[in-house]
Amino acid sequence: MLKRLEELKQNTLKQLKTVGDSSALRELEGATIGKKGELTTILRSIGTLPAEERKAVGEKANQVKQALAAAIEVREEEIRAQEMAADMQAGAIDVTLPGRPIATGRIHPANQALRDIYDIWAEMGFQVYRSPDVETDDNNFSLLNIPPYHPARDMWDTFHTTEPDVLLRTHTSPGQIRAMQEYAPEPIRVILPGMCYRYEQVTVRSEFQFNQVEGLAVGYNIRMTDLKGTMAAFARRFYGADRQVRFRSSHFPFTEPSIEVDVQCILCDGAGCQVCKYTGWLEIAGAGMVHPVVLKNGGYEPTRFSGFAFGMGTERSIMLKHGVQDIRHFWGNDLRFLEQF
Ligand code: DAH
Fold first, then answer.
1. What is the mean pLDDT of residues 94-123?
2. What is the CATH topology of the domain spanning 109-338?
3. Beta-sheet pairing, 255-264 with 281-290
C-alpha cells in the first residue's frame, strides 16, 4: 500500500506538468484527492487494514495528500496566469474599429405631444393641475351638471368599479371640480392632462384609454371672445401659423353656450380628403363657457365669476397633425410606429 501511495504521488506530479488548462487540472484533482479520488478512497479504507499497517499507511497517505494539494495549487496559479495572458491577446481592442451604435429609448409620441401642449399653454399662463384617474361618480358626472339617470350620461360609456360610485374617469373634466374647489374664490387658469377610460369597442378610431388635455379659466370678466381667441392661438401654435380655425355651436352639459373647435385640414389644406371626410375641417376640441351650476359646484358665485373650459384628445391631435390613420398604434408597442416620432 505504501508503494502504491508513492506511485500515485509520482504519477500525479508527472501528469501535473503536462496538464494545460483548468478543466484538465480539475479532472486530475478529482481523480486523486477529490471526493471520489483514489487517495480519498485509500484514506477511507484505512480502518479495514490490519492494525499494524494502519499508522504507517495513514501517515503516508496524509503526506501524499498534502504534497499533491500544494502542487495542484501551484500549477493552478500558473495555468490561470497563462489563460489570462491568452485572453488578453485574443481580446485585444482595435481602437480603429467604428463603435457599436447604442440603441437609445425615446419619449412616447403621446408624451411628446403632451409636452408640446404644456409648453404652449404655459406661455399663455396655464398651469398643469394633476387629478386622479380613479374618480367619484359625483366629480365625473353629477357636479358637472350630469345628474344620475340623466340621458346625457350615455355620451360616456363608463368603466365602473366594484366600489359604489367609484369609476375610471371618462374625461378630464372632473379635474375642473377639483381645481375649482381647491382654489375658489381665486381666479384660476389651469390645464388638466391625463388618461381617460371608456368602456368601448376598440376600433381604428376609438381606444378604451386615451389622453385628454382639459383647460379651465375662471375669473371676473371672462367672455366667449376670450375662449375663441385663446383656442385660435393654441391651434395656430400647435398645428401651424396660418391654419384657419372655426367654431361650431354644440352641446355639453357642463358648458353654456358650448362650441366645437375645428381647424382647417392639415393634410389637404381644406381642399377635402379622406382624413377630413371631404369637409376640409378637423374637429380638435370641445369647449364652452363654464355652466353656472358647475361654477357654483366648484365654489364660485356665478353672478360674480365666469369662465371658459375646453377638452381635447391628445392621441387624436397627433393623428390629425401627422395623418396617423389608426389610433391602436399608440398602445400597440410596435417600434416601427414609435420610432417615426
Ligand atoms: N369632456 C368632454 C368629452 O370628453 C370634452 C369637453 C367638452 C371638455 C367641452 C370641456 C368642454 O371642458 O368645455 O367629451
1. 92
2. BirA Bifunctional Protein; domain 2 (3.30.930)
3. antiparallel
